[in-house]
Automatic annotation (TrEMBL):
Domain Helitron helicase-like as annotated: residue spans: 3-134
Name of the molecule in the record: Helitron helicase-like domain-containing protein
InterPro entries: Helitron_helicase-like
Superkingdom field: Eukaryota
Amino acid sequence: MWGSDGERAQCRRRAFAYQARFGLPALFVTLTPNVAESFVMAQYCGITSVDTLFDAALSEPPGRSALHSASMRNDVASARLFVRNVDAFIEHVLGIPVNRMKTKPFDGLFGDVKAYFGMVETQGGGTLHAHFLIWLADVPPNTNAFDQTLAVHGDQYFRDIEAFADSIVTTSVPLCIAESSFVFCGHSYADLQELPIPTEAYEDPQKIYREHSRHCGEPMLVKCSGCATALSSQHVIRRL
């Protein structure tokens, strides 16, 4: 039965079987698509009805609260859109068409994928997300093989791993901060000055509240070069 303890045990055995066959997975990836607030969800739930994207650009878009409420009331529509996102991830990121389950002639985002294993679970807000174990070709299957490869290639192997990680992971968002300015003095965000990260940023905010009965505010990470007022990163993002 779906969602039962028996199914969970079966999935664990299957995951261990994959590990016995292919070795340790190279990647653990979580896919969390924002299906509750997308335009496609509005189409699925009947909030909007347009034939082309040109019509959609001219229509009044529904608000986030309306989209979220509609997705929570329509589990089938949410599941349909989630499956479309997962299928797109498997085909274009992993490079494996879901209708044939064979690798494409060209690699996906992660390179040559030997195998993958994924499971879906419900988040606290009621939406779905998926966890994937991914096995890559030419990756050592265990620690002994890794040590042997490291002995042969030396530090160059670490540099290759770093280059691979940099090619698939980004921690920056392509936002233009030069077009925004500080709300008080009007100075441009293009000249924000970096501040040292305070020690409070590394502490547990719940622990601070329990010990000192106060909420932990957003850490000040930058300051305005015009009036020298310290700002949090969230303050800057909210103004973009």
